[in-house]
Amino acid sequence: MKRWAFSIIAVIACALSAQATIRTVNSNGTGQYLEIYLAVNAAVTGDTILIAPGTYNSYSDNPNINGKKLHVIGAGWDLVTTKSFTVQGAGATRTIIEGVNTGSNYISLSSGADSLIVRRCRTIQVSFSSLVLIVEDCILATSGDCFSYAQYLNNVLLTFSHCLFVNTNASPANNHNAIDIGYGTQSYSGTVLVQNCAFVNYNKPFDLYHTSTVKALAVINSVFYDWGGTSRSWGTYGPATVFEYNASDSTAPAIPGFFSDHVLLAGDDPFVNYDETANYVHGTSDLHLNGGTGGLLLTDAGHPDPSFNDLDGSRNNIGIYGGPRPLVDNGVPGYPFAISLTVSSPLFNGESLEAQSVGRIGPRY
Asked: Taking the C-alpha atoms of 330, 49, 105 and 77 in order, what is their torsion angle to the nearest 10 degrees?
């Protein structure tokens, strides 16, 4: 049955992307490769690697995409668990990784490659030492820094869209930040864009201002909730910083004067399911807006520019499910995957085959 299921994946994917070589990975032996790194090593620039549901955590399976641009697509972060991904080398520019869960491991953009796109992934950290990073529809959950950057570079662009930043530590350390850029005297110049994100259980979401740095931070349509730790602050950032149409609850520090159109939730819970005592619990917490006072305060409360409108054309809802491309639950990719296939049994020679398949496909970018 699994062999049939993965054959369907390959056929559909080839039809969608005829110009690229499709390489299939399945831990049960029905794909071209048993492990992800084997497919990565065999691939050339322009190839797509499809990862079937499974756990890929053997000692050797730490994929290193070196010097080639690839599109790596897992069946979703709820179905595909991997180890760390490293992207490096000039030829790897604009590599895309999506639909995987790296567990307690990370995704790293190293020297040489000047850009990386990470979509619909669940990971503990994305680290970066290059020019352009786009992180969309991701959950970044860790007891430390979710995003880390340390390099001397100019004119970089970092974009976080519809991402959930979670501090999983019951007592967050005061030196841990959701987005931490630069260490000590290391610096960079450029722009950080944060749109329709959620930050939970952090005591300081941003640490962007280090020695001799010049940078712009723009935070729009995002919610900061269930703050942890003791020394709570909005963090450090450069003078060219904009906070517009965001929201925070009663656990937040004082709102700086330059924040505009900020929504104060006070003690009103805006989410369908969130237990402040347990903090965020993966698989249980639900950050869709509820129909109560808190949820209504964030409904149609985002930036009024039509480019931010929700899918139904209404004004942007603050949080990860607002805007024209809301967070896709479980990281379901924009490529079709057959998840299961049921055939009639027993099947005898000469009989017709009756099969029912269950698949998934998320919105395409």
From this structure: 10
